[in-house]
Amino acid sequence: MSGEDAQHEQQGSAEHRCQERMVLVAHLRRCGIESERVLAAIARIPRERFIPTALSSQAYYDEPLPIGLGQTVSQPTIVAQMTEALELTGTETVLEIGTGSGYQTAVLACLCAKVISIERHEALSREAAARLEDLGVRNAFLHVADGTLGWPAEAPYDAILATGSLPDVPEALLSQLAINGGILVGPVGSRALQHLVAVRRSGVGYTRRTLGGCRFVPLIGKAGWDDEESGAS
Ligand code: SAH
Questions:
Q1: Distance, CA 209 to ligand 1 centroid (Å)?
Q2: Are 185 and 197 in contact (CB under 8 A)?
Q3: Where are the alpha helices (DSSP H) in 31-102?
């Protein structure tokens, strides 16, 4: 193939990807996602860059996909629903627990001032960092640690997103939420099944609402689950 042909093919596939993203965005609207900012971020981030090449034809299916080490990137409707629930306006500092592929990190980075993302697997964190660098994401900072304890060094956070399941909302995370309107979103429940909860902090305490059933891979850690038995997201 000549250089020119290769370039045409690449542009063709870039156009095709762009169309697939638009179809996904239309689907997300039908599923009830209303935030134009969230939809625009999903329209912008190439999900195929965050999954194994062998699965790239499935990049825009509304399904979770494996990313290695038994982990998964969540399905787009869940990513959109969780992101929308954080009510980001662009000025926030956000803590993400469970960097995984870095896809959700990239979506968040479009919507706030700064993302701190914690991952317990060094290899996943390293790969995610390379992808984010490639895409020119400059406002996401990755660390390898047990994120169930949060990341006190940069607290308080305007938003905290747990992208793996928790038996309950850890006290450590609640204490790292900004007092005036900080929002935490994450899947809470049993190892097998959870519901998404959104907790808002105010001067007088916390209010909690439930967003619906879901099934996520577990967060393994001091305030999470204590073994490697797997779930799916
Ligand atoms: N947000 C990710 C999906 C992550 S799946 C994406 O968009 O691809 C959940 C991730 O949480 C997995 O990568 C898993 O390794 C990680 N994880 C599990 N326990 C953790 C812990 N205690 N602290 C940080 N990350 C954890």
A1: 23
A2: yes
A3: 36-44, 76-85
Tens of pLDDT along 87-144?
999 999 999 999 999 999 999 999 999 999 999 999 999 999 999 999 999 999 999 9
Q: Which residue minimizes the CA distance to atom 4 of ligand 1?
A: 100
- Tokens for 91? 């000025």
pTM above 0.90, yes or no: yes
162 Rama sector, left if φ>0, alpha if ψ -120 to 50, beta otherwise: beta
What are the residue numbers of the active site?
A: 74
* Helix 36-44 with 3-30: angle, nearest 10 deg: 160
Cα angle at 87 between 174 and 84, to 5 degrees?
105
Sorted by where each starts, the structural domains of the chain and their CATH numbers stand as 63-214 (3.40.50.150)
